[in-house]
């Protein structure tokens, strides 16, 4: 017997579909198009912690740390609603990004 699938409402599925496409694009090195998809997703669901985290990670991979930190701050501001991603955001913002080539 097949399990019934939960059907997402149209307003819920589009941002998640954009998020999945963006993740695949980032993994293939197409960060510019990944950012475009994530910005579309964030416009539809601005308090989605998964979208904000992926946006921050994609900006990090592009070494756009000011933009990455902005996304981490938005994620941290969600507090408990963001679950463990809020802790990750807090950690990222506290530790910052190591700069290569500088003496430790």
What structural keywords apply?
mainly alpha, disordered N terminus, 104 residues
Would you kindly provide a written description of the structure presented here, covering whatever features stand out?
It is a single chain. The protein is mainly alpha-helical. Helices cover 67% and strands 0% of the residues. The relative contact order is 0.11.
**Helix proportion of residues, in percent?**
55-70%
Beta content: under 5%
Q: Please give the number of β-strands.
A: 0
Specify Rg, calculated over alpha carbons: 15 Å
> Pairing-aware structural class of the strands and helices?
mainly alpha
Shape: globular
CA distance, first residue to last residue: 60 Å
Largest beta-sheet characterization: none
Oligomer: single chain
Order of helices and strands: HHHHH
Total count of helical runs of at least 4 residues: 5
Q: Overall mean pLDDT score?
A: 86
Which ranges are low-confidence, i.e. pLDDT below 50, for 5 or more consecutive residues? 2-8, 99-104
């Amino acid at each position: 017997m097949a399990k019934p699938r939960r059907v997402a409402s149209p307003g819920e599925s589009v941002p998640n579909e954009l998020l999945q496409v963006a993740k695949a694009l980032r993994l293939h090195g197409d960060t510019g198009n990944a950012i475009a998809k994530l910005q579309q997703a964030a416009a539809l669901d601005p308090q989605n912690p998964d979208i904000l985290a992926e946006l921050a990670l994609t900006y990090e991979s592009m070494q756009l740390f000011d933009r990455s930190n902005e996304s981490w701050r938005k994620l941290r501001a969600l507090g408990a609603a963001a679950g463990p991603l809020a802790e990750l955001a807090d950690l990222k913002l506290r530790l910052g990004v190591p700069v290569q080539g500088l003496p430790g």
